[in-house]
Amino acid sequence: MYRLKALLQHLDEDVLHSGLNLMWRIVSGPITLVLLPLFTTPSIQGFWYTFISLAALTLLADLGFTTIATQFVAHEFAFLSLGEDGLIRGEPEHLAATGSFLRFVMKWGIISGMVVVPVIFGIGFLLFAQKAALRVWFLPWGLFSVGTLINYWGMILLSFLQGASQVARVQRISLYSRMAQSLLTFGLLIVHSGLYALAISTLAGGVILAFLLVAAYPRSLRQLLANRTGRRWGREVLSLLWRYAMSWTGGYLNMQVFTPIAFQFRGPVLAGKVGITMTIWSAATNLSIVWLTANVPKINVLVERSQEGQVSRFIRELLRLALLTFIACVAAVALLLFMGSLLDAPLLDRIVGRFMGLRSALFLVGIGVVNVILSAMAIYVRAHKEEPFLLPFVISGAATALLSFFVIRFLDVESVFLGFLISTLVSFPWFYGIYRKKKALWGSAAVGAGHRDGVVSLRDSAPRSLDEASGPEGKTEKENRKDEE
Q1: What span, in angstroms and rounded, lies between the C-alpha atoms of 250 and 392?
Q2: In 57-133, which ranges are continuous DSSP H helix?
Q3: Distance between CA atoms of 291 and 284, rounded to whole angstroms?
Q4: What backbone phi and psi angles, to 5 degrees, belong to 90?
Q5: What are the pLDDT tens digits along the chain (485 aa)?
Q6: Which of 168, 166, 146 is nearest to 157 (CA)?
């Protein structure tokens, strides 16, 4: 009963719309998984997921910048608010700082995207040219690369707006663009468009996302661009960005390296199986941590206001909900597979045959539990504008890539994720030790009190909105506004 009450109490608009966005991926993903085996060849499926894995190299442009954008804007918006008329109100100093930061964000996005995406296109060219004729992949890969660039720009703006306490609204916009992209993908697959289904839908989805975000906040964006200070964000951001960059590179090696390696050494058929299996696993993991990611702005505001005990209790409760969600996702997939095994359906066998087997699935379940916990720890430490996980992320990512290279090349196909599992389990104590040290530094007294008192409910540990988070002198934002009036 407590779990249900905690879940319902914390299911605010931010979590709800973030969850709906991810739920659409959960719903649309299986449809794609069904349509791919029916309307493409195993080889095209391999190219499909290798396209997606290489597109994840946009982290070379991002380098964690979207996370930093959300965090920095959230710290400034601890003193600002967005009115119903679309104008931002609050302390002029923080308004001007946010405006300057928006200009910095726009410049960074344009320059980094224009540099990195052509590099990604070149890497894909060299890889794909070894496997098939240009007519099979060249034009789809070009369109897909342009779409990836536009999506990257849209995600930067989305991250900025999320930091401005607009999580629910921007997630709703993201949902609309994803729905349009998915429906276009389905239609193009059905008419046997092959890789063009992925390329055209990605391009259209990026254009729709960028357009809807700008159209939703015209007054706010114009106001911010008109307000600027002489504050230079470069040094402040870059001092943190290089740490995030190394960590995110490790994250890429941990999450996206398998499909390209399988493509290179075992061919597009196995790459397709690896990619489609990782898609299901990523969807379950991302849906689980939505409890955490949707509350990143609130967590950053609490840190800015030095409410360390509240932050620790809040994240601890969110982590419980995230783990329960992941377990529920695993149980749901297992139930569907069991029910499907009872049916004698050649079509179902054809679909299931495009996935990795049971041993690979068990490896990913264990990895998923650890990754949900790591996500909570990373959000906590990064809310303090630090990245102490730099070295363990880099080393574990490199270990995953190296182990995966040998496993995929020399062991049986069901051992593809064995290197991922080993590096995850071996590195976890390192991550946890750093987390405990930082937690003690920032507020061990408050955390210890929470443990002694037992389980703390969300009602006591977390603000339901930024307005209810206490500000100076222990008053809420609503009370402070009343005093000013």
Answers
A1: 8
A2: 59-62, 65-76, 92-128
A3: 13
A4: 145, -160
A5: 445 455 545 555 666 666 677 678 767 877 887 788 888 888 888 888 888 878 877 766 676 788 788 888 888 887 888 888 888 888 888 888 888 888 888 988 898 888 888 888 998 898 888 877 778 889 999 999 999 999 999 988 998 888 887 878 888 898 899 899 999 999 999 999 989 999 999 999 999 999 999 998 898 888 888 876 667 777 777 777 767 666 666 666 666 678 888 888 888 878 878 887 887 888 888 888 888 887 887 888 788 777 777 888 888 889 999 999 899 988 887 887 677 666 666 666 666 666 787 888 889 999 999 999 999 998 998 888 787 887 888 888 888 888 888 888 888 888 888 888 999 999 999 999 999 888 888 765 444 434 444 333 333 444 444 444 444 344 444 444 444 44
A6: 166
Residue in the structure block whose two tokens are 């969300």: 458
Asked if 386 and 374 touch (Cβ cutoff 8 Å), the reply is: no
For residue 12, list its beta bridge partners. none
- In degrees, rounded to 5, the angle at the alpha carbon of residue 295 between the alpha carbons of residues 213 and 330 is 100
CB atoms within 10 A of CB 458: 20
Going through 176-256 in order, the beta strands assigned E by DSSP cover none
Contact between 391 and 443 (Cβ < 8 Å): no
CA distances from 478 to 41, 57, 205, 421 (A): 59, 43, 38, 48
| CA–CA distance, 119 with 115 (Å, rounded to integer) | 7
Owner of token pair 């008053």? 475
Q: Which tokens belong to 309?
A: 């005990």
Do the beta carbons of residue 396 and residue 423 sit within 8 Å? yes
| Other C-beta atoms lying within 10 Å of the C-beta of residue 143 | 18
Residue spans per domain, the chain: 2-462
What Å distances lie between residue 424 and 106, 269, 401, CA to CA?
Answer: 35, 26, 12
Run of H or E including 350: helix 346-352
The length of the chain, given as a count of residues:
485
**Amino acid found at 340:** G
